[in-house]
Design goal:
Elements: H1 2-10, H2 12-23, E1 25-27, H3 30-33, E2 41-50, E3 53-62, H4 72-78, E4 83-86, E5 94-96, H5 98-106, E6 120-123, H6 132-139, E7 146-149, H7 156-169, E8 175-178, H8 187-194, E9 202-205, E10 219-226, H9 230-239, E11 245-251, H10 258-267, E12 273-275, H11 282-287, H12 295-307
Parallel strand pairs: 1-4, 3-5, 4-6, 6-7, 7-8, 8-9, 9-10, 10-11, 11-12
Antiparallel strand pairs: 2-3
Helix pairs in contact: 1-2, 5-6, 6-7, 7-8, 9-10, 10-12
């Protein structure tokens, strides 16, 4: 990175590509804030405990209100950012004040979105600011194709608000990853928030039925599916005929059988990858109105193998 920075400063020929590499992926917005006028912000150096070790922390806050003249260098570097992980994956060594997020989110004398060429935006739960929903309004735009929302245990509401913003600010969104494992399942709200995302092609989420409106889904990963059974698989297969990849993990266990698996494979003709827990016990087969285990069950398994000739089955204890 230091070599790229030197190259950007010393060569006009390589300046633009070097700046693009340096700024293309950002963990948080602190670098952008540090590009603004020095009289706008202050930095406080302190120490914090991380894994029983004291590490330096730089705390950034605004000392005055934002002005139209503050944005020239901010806008220049912001135009090079393609991926923003907010607030970042790395250990927090630079912390931006909540007041800064709020000021950016509520400032009205600057065009939106702030990052005009952003393609991928990720909100993580670890140090997520309270102004998440407002920041979505400032960062989401027509160029965003990927959005990740992973709220904390007490913040499912702001994540739903973020999705509602995405449905009209980033209508071309093609990939959406949502993690609600720490929150109540907001399935009904999600269905309304996602209804306008007609370009969506990849979705990772926790619930199934609210997603039936997305008939062009090609890859679907769903974790912690509750009460999975053959009926849910029948509905899903009918709703997503274009599926190429289906990965379902269940909580606490699966009530689906070979009957549901076979129906998915037969209905989704483009299916190339399928990860699914099924119950092959005699009781499950009977409840699924399938013949009891024995000679008939051998026929069932052969039918599955005919539909999915490369199927790999793993028996769980």
């Amino acid at each position: 990175m230091s070599a790229l920075a030197r190259l950007a400063r010393t060569s006009k020929i390589f300046h633009s590509p070097a700046i693009g590499r340096l700024w293309g992926t950002q963990s948080g917005i602190h670098n952008l804030i540090l590009c603004m006028p020095v009289d706008l912000f202050f930095k406080l150096d302190t120490l914090v405990s991380v894994s029983r070790m004291l590490v330096p922390l730089k705390y950034i806050n605004f000392r005055r209100a934002l002005q139209p003249s503050d944005w020239e260098r901010f806008d220049y570097y912001a135009a090079h950012i393609r991926e923003l992980v907010f607030p970042g994956h790395e250990p927090v060594l630079v912390q931006v004040s909540e007041a800064v997020y709020t000021a950016l989110a509520r400032y009205n004398d600057h065009p939106r979105p702030y990052l005009t060429r952003l393609r991928s935006l990720a909100f993580t739960s670890r140090t997520e600011p309270p102004a998440l929903s407002d920041m979505c309004m400032a960062l989401l735009g027509p160029s965003v194709e990927e959005l990740t929302v992973m709220p904390g245990p007490n913040d499912s509401a702001s994540a739903v608000v973020a999705l509602a913003h995405a449905s009209y600010l980033s209508a071309s969104l093609a990939r959406l990853d949502i993690d609600f494992r720490s929150s109540p399942d907001p399935s009904r709200l999600l269905a309304g928030a996602l209804r306008n995302l007609r370009e969506l092609r990849r979705l990772s989420i926790m619930s199934l039925r609210p997603l039936h409106i997305f008939h062009d889904l090609q890859r679907l990963h769903v974790s912690h599916v509750r009460d999975l059974n053959d009926g849910i698989l029948f509905e899903g297969a009918a709703a997503w005929p274009a599926l190429e990849e289906l990965v379902l993990t269940t909580h606490p266990g699966s009530g689906a059988t070979l009957r549901g698996l076979t129906y998915v494979a037969e209905t989704c003709q483009h299916l190339r990858a399928l990860a699914l827990d099924v119950d092959v016990s005699p009781e499950a087969m009977q409840e699924s109105r399938w013949p009891p285990m024995g000679k008939a069950s051998t026929g069932v398994w052969r039918m599955v193998q005919d539909v999915l000739p490369t199927l790999y089955a793993e028996r769980k204890a």
